[in-house]
Amino acid sequence: MSRANRRTFLEVSAAAAGTLALGASAGRAEETPKLRMGLIGAGGYGMADARAALKLGGTEIVAVCDVDSDHLNRAAADLEKSQGAKPRTYKHHRDLLASDPLDAVIIASPPHWHALHLIDSLQAEKDVYCEKPVSYDVREGQAMVAAVNASKRIVQVGFQRRQSEAMKQAAQRVKAGEIGDLIQVDAQIHYRAGLNDPTPQSPPASLDWPLWCGPAPLIAYSPQVGHQSWRLEKTTGHGHLVDWGIHLVDAVRTLLGLKMPTSVTASGGLYAYAGRITTPDTLSVHFEFDGLPVHWRHRLWGSSEYDPEVNNGIFFFGTKGTVFATDQRFVVVRGDKKQEHKVATDMGTLHMADFLDAVRERRPPVCLMEDAFRTTATVQLAMISYETNSTVRWDAETMQVIDNPDASALLKREYRDPYQHPYPTA
Fold it and tell me: Cα torsion for 194, 195, 196, 201, to the nearest 10°?
């Protein structure tokens, strides 16, 4: 078999393997009773996760919760069309969790709600598929890990790129030494953010804004800090690195077997969107992982790109070559030779399939809470570095910042009354 034909065969085989895995999951689902699932947070990602569960078969979304009645009613109607039965609807997540029957829940609320939603779900003895990031602050994440470990529930975190065949194959090339010794890793996602009106105004009549803010500060509503746009708001999403870049940081960690950085230094600011968003539109971060530097960069503005094909992805720089990897393809560069490999993967569906199989088989899923916490805390330390304008040195054994009181103070955010932070007080 020629080298070119062999490469094509391997790529087609990888794609077929993903299809077979999904087919096997769906086949098993048809042979067992349907899993009765609830959805907390019926926005775009919540509905994407719900549709993935329905696509795989053997599931029914029996209950939906959202603090916006328009979102709630639209989601219920869409799900009724998909599955033939209308789910029960709730405004408060605890009412959904108290409803019977319910086997598992999908948590797709904004991250400042994740800790309370997850812990309440575990106390209600439900299995959980929780979207990333794990938490808003580091101490919440620790409390969530403790709660999962104390439970007997299956918990999957939505780092879907752990299913990317392109990234897996790229990492195999790096580990096999095709680019020599690995010296540095760069990750980046540049894009032009679509911004909304930041002017404070009354929230839509359908939205319970104080409940949406929950344990976070009760800030003034505007379209820029409401649905979807909360990602670039400091008090809720905490910015582009924590929201989107976290996927690539997780991929670097897991592909290379890294734990947590020993130090983090971030710099950047609001250069193009000052007064419109509250997190940096330009950011550079240096993560030190036991002698391997990992760099993050993002830019949320600009009119055009020199090479759009590398806007979203990871560079692995070695002594003999370079590998670039993104969701569905990777490129190997050695000298004047450049080989591109396309490997399509339905990452979201595969990740949900792994969760549903784990629930039925009562075995660990591919993305454990404890490891997902490490990725989340890594990017949170970067934002702490940015906000304190300092290098943050981290002791992963004690879970403490070393000799930096200002940074240490940001590991935990005080909750708004009457909400109580789940991390135990001293």
Answer: 160
Sign of the CA dihedral with 374 first, then 375, 378, and 379 last: negative
pLDDT tens profile 91-127: 999 999 999 899 999 999 999 999 999 999 999 999 9
Cα separation, 351 vs 347, whole angstroms? 6
- Taking the C-alpha atoms of residue 238 and residue 24, their distance in angstroms, rounded to an integer, is 39
Nearest by Cα to 383 from 158, 194, 111: 111
Structure confidence at residue 20 (pLDDT): 46
Closest to 319 measured CA to CA, from 184, 186, 187, 188: 184
Tell me the DSSP string of 106-132. Answer: EE-S-GGGHHHHHHHHHHTT-EEEEPS
* Nearest 10 degrees: Cα torsion 97, 415, 108, 357: -60
| Model confidence at 18: pLDDT above 70 | no
Question: pTM, whole model, 2 decimals?
Answer: 0.92
* Assigned token pair, 333: 């560069």
- Mean pLDDT across the chain: 93
Domains of the chain, start order: 3-161+349-367 (3.40.50.720), 162-345+374-411 (3.30.360.10)
Q: Residues 120-144: what's their mean pLDDT? A: 98
The pLDDT tens digits of the residues spanning 32-51 come to: 789 999 999 999 999 999 99
Structure-derived torsion over alpha carbons of residues 38, 43, 45, 49, reported in degrees to the nearest 10:
30
What count of other Cβ atoms lies within 10 Å of the Cβ of residue 92? 13
Q: Please provide residue 28's backbone torsions phi and psi, each rounded to the nearest 5 degrees.
A: -65, -40
Pairing of strands 282-289, 292-299: antiparallel
Give, as one character, the DSSP assignment of residue 262.
S
Structure tokens at 295: 């760099």
Question: 10 Å Cβ neighbour count for 252?
Answer: 25
Whether 75 contacts 66, CB under 8 Å: yes
Could you tell me what percent of the chain has a pLDDT over 90? 89
pLDDT at 23 over 60: no
* Separation in Å, CA 406 to CA 75, 134, 269, 379, 384: 43, 23, 19, 17, 9
Q: What digits encode the pLDDT tens for the residues 303-331?
A: 888 999 999 999 999 999 999 999 999 99
Beta bridge mates, 167:
none
Closest CA to 248 of 256, 305, 401, 340: 256
